[in-house]
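Here is an idea for our session: we take a single protein and study its fold together. To get us started, please write out a protein record for me. Once you have written the record down, we can walk along the chain together.
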Amino acid sequence: MARAPPAREAARPCRGHLRSHTISRGAMSRRSILVLCGGASALVLAAAACQSWTVATPAARAFVGRHLARAYGLTFEAQGPTTLALLPAPRLRFQHVRVLNGGRLLAESRSLEVQLGLGALLTGQAEAAALTLAGTRLVLPEDDDRWAGPLARLTARLADGARPLRRLSVTEGRITAGESGSDRLGDLTLSVSWPRAGAGLDLSGRFSWRGVPTHVVFAAARPLDLAMGTPSPVRATIAWPSGSLDLDGTGSWQGGPALAGEGRFTTRALSETLAWVGARAPLAPALGRVTLEGRFEARPDTLAMPSLRLVLADTVLDGAGAATLGPDGRLALSGTLAAERLDLSALLPGRAEAGSADAPLALAPWTGGDLDLRVSAAAARIGPLQAEDVAAGLLVRAGAVEASLGRATLQGGTVKGRAVLVDAGSAGLEAKLQGTADRVDLGSLLTDLGLARPILGRVQGSLALDAAGADLAEMTRRVGGRVSVTVDDGEIAGVALAETPGAEPALRRGGRLPFERAQVTLGLSAGLGEITQGQIRTASSALTLRGRVVLPEQRFAAEVEPSARDPLRSAEGRPARYELAGPWGAPRLRLLSPPRPASPALPAAASAYAP
């Protein structure tokens, strides 16, 4: 039986196994070293690629300039150092850049970073995939077409399948009118994304226009479709400190831009917003908080809204309208609107803001634009007056305002009228007023106007007045025309008819004088009114009125005389004449010539004693 080897010998490896193990360890060490070296090299290369390297500016400028010249006919200039970075994408950064078309400046920038497309770069061409500009000025043409050629070439290239500029970023930018013109936009910050030619373009940014900071968001538009005359969806939002504009529709470019869709415009001060955009509107002093929304069709300088809702302060109007902006910034508006409740108190051209009759009247602020408006309302307020079933019109032209009232129900009656104001230059205003009233409750009307109620009843009549002056007081002193008024079933305050048994009736102060009808025809000239016809008929008397009305002083003086067969006359037929005079709201009655007492009657036989 063989003897087992010692335990020490059994644990000793053989030489062949030891040699194999040594070779394996050496191979693994070399592979690890190679991997580590390769990784370190890759890291070094990656770090180097991420770093910016200064390159020769003329060569880099020529590299980019050849592409711009070939594709768009542009000249590319750059000065100062140029840097190159390879990661995360190859890009060149230039300093003091200028882009020109035929020697005419299109844009200049303090710095320009161009991200190069990899596909074009492998073929040795410079095609921009993204641009980042800082301290940039874009030049808008004034009387030339410096942008027309490059834009036409861009459209053709995109139509042929060329890839668009996918990203554009602008900071510290501005846009000027011409090379030496003033800034149109300042403080421009812009971010544009356009992944491919057939896709929509997304734009967001902010800028300062005429000193007002403005934010804009523009989405969904397909520029290539617009450039080729094909409709494209458009969504845009513009916001500024006092308002905003939201649009959602379809745009096209055929002989110029056009846009149709739904929109909403709101502002806290419309006159301020219009002045900011360079437009002059009619009735500007009355234009405060405004909201306008509905369907629209817009082209340069024109806007049509076949369906709209207009909110002026607390008044809501629905209808249709249109607007045109003239070359001088004059805005012309037209529309037909309806409202449940309408407040026209602010639309009183030339009113004195302080309410003083001596305050100068100025029509120019109200006629900065044109207006042709037709309005109907179930209920309306015009100053202190409230009316129902109103149909009115307002026409504004340069230096003239015309307001017409087709009909309105006022205090149970019907009124119609027309008022015209014309700017007379240094002479102030010329005014014409015409109107009719039928069955209006005179007492309630005077109460609404805040006046005393010396006469009550149902009034009908007409007026035709004209005046001129620099203020309301002067116009009142120069007013002329004719007023005819008839009041039925009324009464006069402060006058009464005393009827004592056994005595002749007489007028007295105090109380009220009921009447069946009162008629007055007043001729006005230079603020003075002459009562050419006047009569008051009571149940037992007929009184004739003659006298004058002084409009500037709001006073009148009239003689009241009974008719020839009136009981107020004496038995001898001698009239008892009275004077009714004083302020409109509190006239006083005074007896002018009392009837002479009759002589006692003599007996028939007395004649026999006569000499």
Remarks:
- The chain has a mean pLDDT of 82.
- The first helix runs from residue 7 to 11.
- The radius of gyration is 46 Å.
- The first strand starts at residue 53 and ends at 55.
